[in-house]
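Bug #77: duplicate submission created two jobs. Keeping one. Sequence:
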Amino acid sequence: MTKEELITRIKKLLALSDSSNPNEAAIALSRAQKLMQQYHIEMSELDDSVISERIIETVRGMKNIKHISQIGHILTKVLGVEFIYHTNQYGTVEKVNMIGPKDSLESCEYIFVILTRSVMAAKKLYSEKIYCHIIDYILGAPKLRESLSQNKRTKESLDHFEKCKDFSFNDPYGFQGLKAIVDSLCILDPQFNYVFNKLKRELPESFMFGYFKAVYEKVAEFVQDDETKEAIEKFKAGNHQDLKIRRTKTRRIHADAYNDGCEQGEKVKLMNAVNGQGGVRKLLK
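Kept job's structure:
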């Protein structure tokens, strides 16, 4: 007897276990359980509806594969679901497939939206002051500052920023003045332009790395049970056979930006699962 035939037979026995005849129901259930034990058949193999999937369209401003996959990693720990990311020719995420226990997907989608919004807000908050963060970083790096100060105009500007650093962060007029000077330096000093654009890429990534690290640490550690893992893998094998594994590049981590991200990430709060669903898994405090 093949495994498929065994599964069909067990399903019929389980159907009989709902019989109004107590003796017939008990015998059918007993036989089904014995067959499952004897041939190592799991419940996930008997009910095709246990594992399902949902598709979420990504929103503008939140299509970065690294950030989306970080959210997916957190939700895998929280709800035991897995994610498939659909990217376009430019490498940005257009939509996401969530795969997992059917009764967890509603909660997962809800939390995915909440986390997406919080990530977008954190990125916006940091990016709005990126000029200040870069100058602050340069002023706090003696060797880098010394190297850039070989250009007389750049040295004068950095000395000026050192004196008025605080109000540049908090005063909008001071910030606009700082931005104008920095833009001018990028045009006049090639070395400063190189450093500025390098930090403009790296600092936000370090910030987001710290942000996700803090959110992740707030998640209670739940281990996905082996039965659910196996069921999800079977679902993926049957419905998504042409998956491609994509590795994201890692960048240098800058401590100050990382710590700023951790501080923002610690402020994130998630509510309990929608309608109390998601099994007995708890979310963030």
